[in-house]
Amino acid sequence: MFCYDNRQQTDGEEQMTTDNRQQTTDDGQQTVHRSGFVNIVGNPNVGKSTLMNLLMGERISIATFKAQTTRHRIMGIINEPDAQIVFSDTPGVLKPNYKLQEEMLAFSESALQDADVLLYVTDVVEKPDKNQDFLQKVARMQVPILLLINKIDVSDQQTLENLVASWHEALPTAEIFPISAKARFNVDNVMRRVKELLPPSPPYFDKDQWTDKPARFFVTEIIREKILLYYDKEIPYSCEVMVESFNETDKSISIRAIIFVERDSQKGIIIGHKGVALKKVSTEARKTLEKFFQKSIFLETYVKVDKDWRNNQKRLQAYGYKLD
Ligand SMILES: Nc1nc2c(ncn2[C@@H]2O[C@H](COP(=O)(O)OP(=O)(O)O)[C@@H](O)[C@H]2O)c(=O)[nH]1
Ligand SMILES: [Mg+2]
Predict the structure, then answer these.
(1) N or C: which end of the chain has fewer CB within 10 A?
(2) Ligand 1 closest atom vs CA 150
């Protein structure tokens, strides 16, 4: 079970030094410490976040049946005595229609810049000729690429063989792994290969840190997940969530969160008749938050209009989208 509390990050007391590069095992042999950035990229809805959660062994990134569920780059860190793997889940690559999507694409492209190993995720439906621009960038990369053909649970042998052949042509340097993130098939082999490919390096983060994101980030993500699940069409894409207050005690957390929408009409839809819709979102979010934090949660949610926020640079910055 996921427990955020056990994994609180320290504020740098135990600073890592390059001494960590070499460790000595019980029998006196020196082992090399490996660490690196393993970045998960690909088109929307192929299963990147589902895979990230599986690799982490925890539910760190929200994953739904809707495209564009992931808006940020989210790091999940796995620490072992002689290794630190920093996975990044990214938004799906898409042609931006508004500023928010430009920022989402920037997160995905940044994942090409700093990768030590790239996990390019596709699925059994998608053809290699989709999204050529991004694929060309991937093809030019100098780092090892693992091409993961996901969702093989809903495919057959012949289709898969054809896909493997055409992907082999599209990305000749990539190692191909047919997987099913949902059925947990072949993901162990991916993990094993990732570890082999990590370069020798001291850790990038404290060894008790498991994500780059603060607790509040997960609150907004979990509320956003419920909105994605319970509202139709454009509504979820017009919402952003902000945590106004977060007060934690030993046993409980009191949270006030604001759901921003783009227009008055959307506010009515989010709240619903007699507030029923918003109540459902809050109740479901509270249950998931209780599992996530392993504490009682008191959650209050409000809805406000933030006109056209998806196209407003300043507002996007306030919501944490602007890189650098
Ligand atoms: N059948 C099947 N569905 C999957 C698999 N992996 C993910 N999915 C589903 O695909 C949808 C998109 O998953 P998500 O992880 O959000 O994709 P992302 O947009 O690439 O992050 C969700 O409904 C998942 O449950 C898989 O291995 N098999
Ligand atoms: Mg995702």
Answers:
(1) C
(2) 27
Q: What is the pLDDT of residues 111-134, one digit of tens each?
A: 888 899 999 999 999 988 888 888
Does the CB atom of residue 46 touch ligand 1 within 6 A? Answer: yes
Ligand found nearest the CA of 71: 2
Helical (H) or strand (E) element with 316: helix 313-318
Distance from residue 141's CA to the centre of ligand 2 (Å):
22
Give the count of beta carbons closer than 10 Å to the beta carbon of residue 2: 17
Contact, 60 vs 50, CB < 8 A? no
Residue identified by tokens 């509202």 is: 231
The CATH number that domain 215-318 falls under is: 3.30.300.20
Strand 34-42 versus strand 117-123 pairing type: parallel
Residue 297 alpha carbon to ligand 1 centre in Å: 29
What separation in Å is there between the alpha carbon of 67 and the centre of ligand 2? 8
262 CB neighbour count, 10 Å cutoff: 21
Report CA torsion sign: 247, 282, 292, 71.
Answer: negative
Q: How far is CA 202 from CA 31, 55, 294, in A?
A: 12, 21, 32
Q: Would you kindly state where each structural domain of the chain is located, as residue ranges?
A: 27-197, 215-318
Rounded to two decimals, the pTM is: 0.84
For atom 19 of ligand 1, the residue with the nearest CA is 45
Residue-wise pLDDT for 50-94, tens only, equals: 999 999 887 778 787 777 788 888 899 999 999 999 999 998 877
CA 208 to ligand 1 center in whole angstroms: 29
Using the atom order of ligand 1, give the atom closest to the CA of residue 62: 16
